[in-house]
Structure formats: structure tokens, C-alpha cells
Write a structure and sequence with these properties.
about 400 residues, seven-stranded antiparallel β-sheet, seven-stranded mixed β-sheet, 18 strands, about 30% helix
Length: about 400
Amino acid sequence: MSASGQTAASGPFPAESASHAAADAARALREALRKADVEAAQGLRWLAPRPPGERDLLSDLAAAEGLTPAIQRLSRFWQRAEVRLERVRGITPCEAEVYERLQLPGESLPIVTLVRRDNESSRWRVVCTNEAYDERFVLWIAVTAEAVDDVRWTRAFVERHGPHGELVMDGADGVLGHPDHGWLVHVRGPFLPATWPEVLPGEGGRVIELATALSPDPADRRAQLDWMLKGARVFLEELDGQGAFVPAHDKLVLAQALAAAADGTLTASQELRFWARIEEGDGYLFTSGLRQLGLPEVEAPKELLGSPDATARLLRWLGGTLLESPTVPSFGTELVLDDESVLLVAGRRGPRRGRSYGRWGAMGLVRTDPAFDRGSRTRMRVPDAVTER
């Protein structure tokens, strides 16, 4: 997964200047908040009615306490914070997401700001700023042990994978660190969750939670996740684990699959099933999980190929192809089937209203217009077995 995939997976922005202007709008609102400049802040906000998914702390405080007290309270926070721009994802010419890294003493947090404008000649305005949850990987491991021996755990990790991980626990909280890359995984547990996930075996037992902020670079992110999976496997083996669960995607990870992923022995189709699942909503089928690897999700109308089953097989094939390929296909690529074809286009903002696919976006599939001029477009042939009725 090379860095070239970042450009191919970006949204349909026609001009670099639009990306800069979108980032400038987010930066200008923060500066107004730092100065507690109510008039300037109000002029930079998107004031149209918003769905629940587009609320943030500023809008909630303003609704509860009034705009001036809300800005005064947030001013003290932003005076202490530093923000570094990482990426702008264009969704449409009038909507974009600005991804940044928020730095506070002792903490780093990925955030995303949604910006919008009425038309291409008007100013960008800030809709909301929230934590970029898709940039944080969380894994639950079902265990029977009641405590973690960090010295024993570290010794086991070193024996299996070399001196690339050290666990330090302070009661039920701890940190797993990589001495060379500086990756940190926050460890919590074993604890009893308020609600046990239905698909996770070991109900009535305890859970170890591993959580980390993912690197914005796809190649570094993949290496980071591979290292984290090695650590998760050691937790499974040392604490009599029964399985793992990804809360963000409501996905069960069997112990055998986690071990194979940690060893790097999964095939492309197995790897797709390990990281992602096919979901349905609003008349679409879409993958959920590829963005963890720095890849775009894939979506299509569920009747794209006449039946949801056929469309789902095409999504699985394309998802597996993304996992195997060093680059992400560009928008406009034609997928050639038996007697028809579909195009890769920019996907929607997210799988449902008010939700985002994250910084890597989505690739959508649409039927090719009968008048479509193939010209010199890139074409990929889909194996016959993928779409067999």
C-alpha cells in the first residue's frame, strides 16, 4: 500500500486551491476561538440546521449556554492546543473534511473538521469538529485471566517476535510500546464490559482493550497494525483468550484468524474477511474496515448487478484487489464484466447520513452509460467466477 494510494483515493477536488481554502477555514475558526472573538467565529460557522451527526462541542455548548459563554470556555482550551494539518479530503466541490493532529501536553488526538460552502465561489464555513474515530484502532480480547503480568507478557513477546515490544501495567491500565518506532498502545483491563458483544465468545468473562492512534501514512500504518496484532496474539495465548472483537465494525476475529494475520499467512480473500465486512444501508452495499489500512472503502447500489449477492461478490473481489495492489485504481477506471461494465467513481461522504468514510473516502461503482466512450481509459477485467449467476 504505497503512498500513491493517498492521491488516488482522495475526493473529487478539481483544484489544489480549494483544499487550501478548506483548511484555512478550519484554522481561522480556531484562531477566532483562541481570541474569544465571537463575531469572527460566528462569521466562520455553517449556521444552517444540522443533523445529530454534524454536532460538535461548540454547537452543543452554544445551544445550552449561548454562543458567547461557549466561545469563552473553548478559548482557554484552544490557547493550550497545537494543531498540525495532515490531509484534506474533498467530498464534493462544496464539501470537504480537514484531517489534523491535535497536540496537548501528554496527548495526541486525530481530529476532523467538516467544512461546507453554498457554491464554488462562496466562502468555506465550518460545520463541526470532532475526533476522527476512524483514525483510532480499538481491539477487545476476551480472556479468562483476572490480571496481566507485564513482566511475563514482555518476556513472551520477546521470545516470539524479538525486542520490539514492552508492556508496562499500573493496575488495570498500561502501555505497550515499540522501542524503535515509538508506537504506543493503551492497554486496559481485564475488565467486565457493561454489555458483552453478542458475537464475542466467552460471555461472563473479562476483556482486554487495546487502543492506538493510527499513523497517517498507509505503509507505516500497516506495519503498526501488524505489530499490534502480534501483541494481541500474545495476550490471547498468555491470558487464555477465546477471541477478539473490533467495536468500530462490530466484527468478531477468531483466535486462529488473528494468529494467521500476525504471522502474515492470510490470502487476499482471507485478509479482506479479517479486516472488513460487507454491510447494507440506504439501498447500498459497502465495505466497512478497509479504511483501517489506509484504503478507500468500496460501495455500490445493491442491485448494481441485478442481485445483492452478485454485487457483494464484486465488492469482495475489488476489496481483495485493493489489498494486493501496490496502488489504488483511479476514478474513471472501467471494470469489464462479461457483457457489461461499471465505472469507479468517488463515493459518498459516508455510509449513512451524518457519517463519514474517513480520510480515505470510498470508491463507488456505477453502471457505464451505453453512450460511454471508452477512449484511453484504464480497464480492469473482472474474473468470470466473480459474477456468475
